[in-house]
Amino acid sequence: MNCNKVIFEAAYGTAKQLPPSNLPEVVFAGKSNVGKSSLLNKFFNRKNLARVSSVPGKTTTVNFFRVENVRFTDLPGYGYAKRSAAEIRRWSDLMEGYFAGQRQIALLVQLLDMRHDPTADDRTMLRFLTDAGIPFVCALTKCDKLKKTQREQRLAAFAADPDLRAAQAMLEISSETGEGIERLRALAEAAVDAYVREYADGDEAAATTEET
Predict the structure, then answer these.
(1) Segments in 16-119 forming alpha helices (H)
(2) Where do the DSSP E strands lie in 30-184?
(3) pLDDT tens across 95-149, in order?
(4) Would you kindly state where each structural domain of the chain is located, as residue ranges?
(5) What is d(CA 161, CA 157) in angstroms, rounded to the nearest whole number?
(6) Which of 38, 71, 151, 185 could form a disulfide with 23 if both were Cys (CB 3.0 to 4.6 A apart)?
(7) What torsion, rounded to 10 degrees, do the Cα atoms 111, 115, 118, 122 define?
(8) What residues have CB less than 8 Å from 92, skipping those under 6 apart?
(9) pTM of whole model > 0.85?
(10) In the structure, what pLDDT confidence band is assigned to residue 60 with cuts at 50, 70 and 90?
(11) Domain covering 3-211, topology
């Protein structure tokens, strides 16, 4: 999977606009000021693929990118207090519509600010992922802002957090230095490969059942 060949596909602002899922998806989720746009740009080696703003909450649509036969999904950030009631309802409907749409999610990358404990919104998302059985890893962003001892303390706190028990991995990530990006790419590719194999095995088993 060559992440340098990424293309932007489309952005959707309402659940009704979302197209059916026809490719394995790697999803990026997190609160609105966690550094998701910066991480995506680093992940794909692009400067302006995802819009970076000094004002949180700018990503208000579900954005789809594609690399070969894999779709990457950038979900709108949550937890931004300065949204109107109508905008919060639209965001909620959009998120519910996305996850209710039988998406082919191979992996979800849940971003958490390494400097702080998960917020209430983070915990709601983590519990949803666990209850729904969606495979996810945690990208602990802004690790470059911490000293070594602080990082060790924060890692220990995340490792002991019961809401993170279902995470397949926890990665220290810096969009500034690139730390953790290669490992994240490798995890995403491995998850897609495993998803495709499982899907192919399921199709083969179904075909064998029909023949017998």
Answers:
(1) 36-43, 85-99
(2) 62-67, 70-74, 105-113, 136-141, 170-172
(3) 899 999 889 999 999 999 999 999 999 999 999 999 999 999 999 999 999 999 9
(4) 3-211
(5) 6
(6) 71
(7) -30
(8) none
(9) yes
(10) confident
(11) Rossmann fold (3.40.50)
